[in-house]
Design a protein that fits this description.
Shape: globular
Helix content: 25-40%
Number of strands: 17
CATH architecture of the largest domain: 3-Layer(aba) Sandwich
Largest sheet: 7 strands, mixed
Length: about 400
């Protein structure tokens, strides 16, 4: 008998309605021959990937956004010594328009390289458009890759495989072309090949979810998935598990949340510290006398709302101050400008909104010669990926895992 191998392929931002024969004929055929379902995303950023790898919610693994408030241990805290210079550079960048934005990104890249050397952290990242004055307050949520050994509060699928002595390969953090070339080279000892393709997400942000460039890239991804499958089928009885983390919405509105706070007379740095993700503004109150006023201003801003305690619980968001004292979430299709990722540059597509929208849903596909076919009778979540992988590899699920194997819902 030939050995079995599982191909787990993560297609970032692959919407359910992308699964059509003209744009993704090979993946479409796999869905018709195997098990097909649909997944609903989480309101999380890096926390979605952590849930995929651990089978639990952000409440349990503790990861939510990429950056958190941590001034005492920030790898950028050394920039505080150049406070006056930072304020001057930030003011210049704001006044210089597009040229200033390019300059801000270049300076932040230089600060990143210096911080990596100072801290000795090769995996350190920086928000490309964050004001220099604000860097000193923030740190990344975790300091090494999630694929390393025991870096999260609970074991990942790869921790479990290491404990069992099962060989696996991971191709992530690479350009799609490099990930494809590496994954297409068959390792005869690997029982799991985990591949993460990110360019559907990258292109979707740039041009939006419904453009010719998206269709073109979907066809290219489909071709690459087919090639990886074909190469492994020459050596293994190959099972295929295709999933995504979220879909993508078209951006139809922008809101300048900082401008409205400034016009109210509130002072950034004195009354509050803020981190502006593309769809979310997280505030840390510095002047308790101004907290009520900050909330009142935020409540009046059209295009989003403050997340309540009930929202935090419903969306499984860790109630940890490092993620914010007050969190303002944009409505579906609304982009905050400026923000710390795109600066003042609008993009055409975005995710990171409250779950439940059909545009944020993504397909689940499970295919193998002796695996069942049909429809998965349950809406999946990222937490279900790990137990499904374990089930496909005939491994037992750990007691702490919250997700369920999707093979049980056919």
């Amino acid at each position: 008998m030939r050995k079995r191998c599982l191909l787990a392929i993560w297609l970032d931002a692959f919407r359910t309605d992308y699964l059509e024969k003209p744009t993704a004929p090979f993946i479409y055929q796999l869905s018709k021959e195997g098990l097909q379902g649909e997944s609903e995303t989480l309101l999380a950023f890096d926390g979605i990937g952590a849930s995929i790898l651990t089978g639990v919610s952000p409440l349990k693994h503790g990861v939510w956004t990429q950056f958190c408030f941590n001034p005492a241990s920030s790898p950028f805290r050394w920039t505080k010594e150049a406070s006056r210079l930072n304020r001057f550079v930030d003011a210049l960048a704001d006044k210089a328009g597009a040229v200033g934005q390019v300059g801000r990104a270049a300076l932040n890249l230089l600060v990143l390289r210096l911080s990596r050397r100072i801290e000795g952290r090769a995996s350190l990242h920086v928000p490309p458009m964050i004001p220099l004055q604000n860097l000193q307050f923030f740190d990344t949520t975790f300091h090494v890759s999630m694929y390393k050994s025991h870096v999260l509060a609970v074991p990942t699928i790869f921790d479990m495989l290491r404990e069992q002595g099962i060989l696996f390969k991971v191709f992530d953090g690479l350009r799609d072309a490099d990930a494809f070339k590496s994954a297409a080279r068959v390792d005869k000892k690997a029982k799991l090949v985990f591949v993460h393709f990110v360019n559907i997400d990258t292109v979707g942000h740039t041009v939006g979810p419904y453009t010719e460039r998206i269709w073109k890239w979907l066809r290219e991804v489909d071709r690459r998935v087919m090639r990886i499958v074909e190469e492994h089928q020459k050596t293994f009885d190959t099972d295929i598990f295709i999933f995504s983390d979220h879909g993508m919405l078209e951006v139809d509105k922008t809101v300048n949340i900082l401008g409205q706070l400034w016009r109210s007379g509130l002072k950034e740095g004195k009354d509050f510290i803020v981190f502006i993700d593309s769809t979310m503004a997280r505030f840390w109150i510095q002047n308790q006398k101004c907290e009520r006023r900050i909330v009142e201003v935020l409540d009046r801003i059209q295009g989003g709302k403050i997340l309540s305690q009930e929202d935090l619980k419903r969306y499984q968001i860790p109630n940890d101050r490092k993620y914010g004292d007050v969190i303002w979430l944009a409505d579906a299709g609304t982009l905050m400008l400026p923000n710390y990722y795109q600066g003042m540059k609008p993009v055409k597509g975005m995710h990171g909104y409250a779950p439940g929208l059909k545009e944020l849903r993504s397909p689940i596909i499970i295919h193998g010669e002796d695996l069942p076919s049909g429809r998965i009778q349950r809406t999946a979540t990222p937490k279900d990926i790990l137990p499904t992988v374990l089930d496909l590899m005939n491994m037992n699920t750990r007691a702490h895992v919250e997700g369920k194997s999707l093979l049980k819902y056919r």
